[in-house]
Amino acid sequence: MASEGTAGAEGVGVEGVEPGTVRPGGRTARVREAVLRAAGDALVEHGFDGLDLADVARRAEVGKTTVYRRWSAPAGLVADLLTDMAEQSLPRADTGSLAEDLRANARLVVRTLTDPRQGALFVAVIAAAACDPRTAEALHRFYAVRIGEWSGSVEAAVERGELPAGTDPGEVIAAVSAPLYYRLLASGAPLDQEVADRAAAAAVAAARAGVFVR
Prior knowledge:
Layout: H1 26-46, H2 53-60, H3 64-71, H4 74-88, H5 98-114, H6 116-129, H7 133-160, H8 169-187, H9 193-208
Helix pairs in contact: 1-2, 1-4, 1-6, 2-3, 4-7, 5-7, 5-8, 5-9, 6-7, 7-8, 8-9
């Protein structure tokens, strides 16, 4: 899904993270923020295979010992990066309309995936997850958090009578973003607002037809 606090740029959400976010917590929090931003930069430039803790420490201007002691391995660093991205994600849209909520979700995903930095970051993390179990677990947690957040839109729609009882909220949200990630990772077809709106409309139509009833 989808930011940018530690990982971001240009005001686009990693499925919704505000740029320049700095949370309280003193020096430890500042060090973590600097290291995670540096890790994101390194992933964008070199991919997971090129992620080196000493290089990250240099970029973040912190001691190598600090990085090795806290994260121990590149997989641990990527896992914490994904945790941070999930923690900083913005709340879901709440427009009172399922179609509008899911359109907002789809447009946010597209903005994230087409951002030069964020799109490259997601591709690098997904590639890493394909070959590293710890990164895969962290990626699954990230998307579980994002799907859980946006599932509230579907639950509200069921309560309003927009959708059949028993509709699986997570499946509806996943159906919105799945074709967008397919374009990013498989087909290479363009990603734009029209594509986002079509993905949202398709998910809404399927949900109303009862496709996602458990």
